[in-house]
Amino acid sequence: MKELKQFFENYADIVYITEISTNKVVFLNKAGREALHLTSDDQYLGQKCYKTFYGYDLPCANCTNERLQENMFYDWSVINERLATTFLVRDTMIVENGITYRVEIATDLNTLNPSQTQVKMNNNERILNNVCDVAYSATDPNQAIEFSVESLGKQFDSDRMYIFEDNPDGTSSNTYEWCREGITPEIHNLQNVSASTMHVWNKHFEKGENIIIYDLEEYKPIDPEMYDTLKPQNIHSLVVGPLTIGNQRFGFYGVDNPPRDAIGNITTMYTLLGKFLASLLRDRDRAKKLRQLSYNDALTGLFNRASLHDYMKALKNQSITFFFFDLNGLKHINDYYGHHEGDLFIIRAANVLKNFFMPDPVFRMGGDEFLSIKIGLTEKEAQDMNQALRKHLADEDISTAVGMVWKPDNSLPFNIIFKEADYQMYNDKKKYYSSRLHDRRIDRNS
Questions:
Q1: Closest by CA position to 105, among listed 34, 201, 29
Q2: Which of 89, 122, 118 is nearest to 13 (CA)?
Q3: 25: which residues sit within 8 A by CB, 6+ positions away?
Q4: Are β-strands 99-108 and 85-96 bridged in parallel, bridged antiparallel, or unpaired?
Q5: How many Cα atoms are found within 13 Å in the side-chain-facing hemisphere of 420?
Q6: Distances from the Cα of 231 to the Cαs of 201, 223, 237, 253, in angstroms?
Q7: What is the pTM of this model?
Q8: Where does 86-215 have alpha helices with state H?
Q9: Could you list the pLDDT tens digit for every one of the 446 residues in the chain?
Q10: Which of 259, 273, 361, 407 has its CA 20 to 30 A from that of 133?
């Protein structure tokens, strides 16, 4: 509550806080005291809000207390006969130490010129329309987010616009950033920001509250650790707000150094913009998940056969080496120990192959078959890698037949090279069974 009072004390609009159960005033900012010509605290602290602000002896007939919810604003207008003016009002509810409070922000319409209210509404609509247009013109969800961040940063006339996303370990990382020309990017310096640095902000975000800093120096005593993070970035003012969908919060977004007279207008649409950006992030994650399901094997996490087509299309015309694998003994494991143990064997083999060929991909072609493709090797380098691979598999106790094929370029169709690698692998598997004096027919599916 102390931080909230400090924040609103010099706010341009009238702001007051009352205890809902008693209607007693617990805070009235400077603008409110001046409007009501109150010179001492006892003239309003502990007094009934309807008596203090309207001169009524009974609660207001249009009191909005029953309509208030945490993390949401209720917008309305009211004529105050005592002050002989009409106010645009935003009310919300907060709970602290088990006590429920009403927070009201009232803008005197007489302080606006006749067309200013409509201008603000039109400007907000223009900003929302513009950001929607650029987002929907993007070719993929990630680009939609990048376009939106840039559009908002420019329209808010800010130095920097950004998105932070929460990490599983409780830290937060800057994942998207737009900077005005001449402003130094900070995204690489703002990875894995500690939970202790974010502590004060997170308390506000958990309540669905935005944070507005008009003057960073005035904010220093409220949150010294965050001040130390912001100061080196040449920030003097900012607006940040949570990114939420439903009850799930997964990050925040903000603008640095917007014009001071534009901050109030920015905050009026901040909740809506936060939900819009959050929906774009959700679309990105859904697209990523769908791509993963389409291109990745569910058991091992490796690329699957379907992803191989796109990979081959992207290759340049240079030397190419196929390494094709078929695990030995999987049928025996499945028959005698169960398919669960067989799956564990496949997963272990997949991880060994992935770590050996990294950063080049490994594809699970189906069942117990895997393929890796190396680009740019000489024939000798391919042969040396084949020998090193066989030794590594033996050291890891992974028995597999290997078929290797090297070509000076990748002009041949994929199926031609793959068929040759399959033939080499088949011969290697025959050697494996022959060396163990197996007298049964080779089962290509073993």
A1: 29
A2: 89
A3: 16, 17, 18, 44, 45, 46, 47, 48, 49, 52
A4: antiparallel
A5: 11
A6: 16, 12, 10, 18
A7: 0.53
A8: 116-136, 141-155, 199-206
A9: 788 888 889 888 899 999 999 999 999 999 999 999 999 999 999 999 999 998 888 888 778 888 888 877 777 777 787 888 878 788 899 988 889 999 999 888 666 555 554 545 556 777 878 888 888 888 888 999 999 999 999 999 999 999 999 999 999 999 999 999 999 999 999 999 999 999 999 998 988 888 989 899 989 998 999 999 999 999 999 999 999 887 888 999 999 999 887 786 676 677 788 888 998 998 888 888 777 777 888 899 899 888 888 888 888 788 999 999 999 989 889 999 999 999 999 999 999 999 999 999 999 998 899 999 999 999 999 999 999 999 999 999 999 999 999 999 988 888 899 999 999 999 998 887 776 654 444 444 44
A10: 259
Distance CA 87, CA 409 (A): 75
What CA–CA distance (Å, rounded) separates 308 from 104?
Answer: 59
Q: Which amino acid is at 243?
A: L
Cα separation, 393 vs 400, in Å, equals 8
Phi first, then psi, for residue 220 (nearest 5°) are -50, -50
How far is Cα 109 from Cα 88, in angstroms, rounded to an integer? 7
SS3 53: helix
